[in-house]
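Late entry, written up from scratch paper. The run itself happened at the end of the previous shift, but nothing got recorded in the book at the time, so transcribing now.
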Amino acid sequence: MPDQITLNVFRGDPESGGEVKSYDVPTFVGMVVLDAIHSIQAHQDSSLACRWNCKAAKCGSCSAEVDGKPKLLCKTRVDEYPSGTINIGPMRAFPLVKDLVSDVSWNYRMSAKIPPLTPAPNAPMPFVMQQVDVDRVQEFRKCIECFLCQDVCHVLREHHRSDAFFGPRQMVRFAALEMHPMDTLNRREPLKGEAGIGFCNITKCCTEVCPEHIHITDNAIIPLKERVVDDYFDPVRKLIQIFVGKK
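Output as recorded:
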């Protein structure tokens, strides 16, 4: 690792536009990109805006783009870039607030639209569940809501279809509820409709960037797609529903 690295950092806001500014930062062993940002704030430019909290890759706050790829700044080591130059910018799938800070509030508005866990009225409390069922939904609970999967999703990032697709993070939330053994609610209608699961074409880019290594595509999106297809596009099931007079 060189004694010094150059950070090309996006600076700006929606009103003034933006530009890339370069900063030379001294390095140390084990340095991560967030350390370099803190060095700039402490010694060169205190006005640089960057959201962070735990610096342990568990809060999901320091999400940004490093060399064009969505990453957590606190989990991205400087020695991964031997050239000595690193380009840093905000997540492009969301509106810019300032510098490296994006407005991710849209994600919470979409989350509020997902019907919550709905157990049967006579469900035992506390829940009695098989370990295999616990394991299946536990993976989805690891999400730290960094929204890197939302940022890398081409539907949101390239095609700007936040009006039609809730994104991978919300598909994980759907899966955690749909696959919960004590849940009784059918969420296939919002999945097919407003949540727009049909827009996902299984590129697995969301799985690749997940810092918690959640198998978003294989374990959440594909099973949800299968359930929607079964309910709405299975011809045999349609005939049975017509025969028994069930919607």
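Residues 103 and 119 are 34 Å apart (CA to CA).
(Scratch paper discarded after transcription.)
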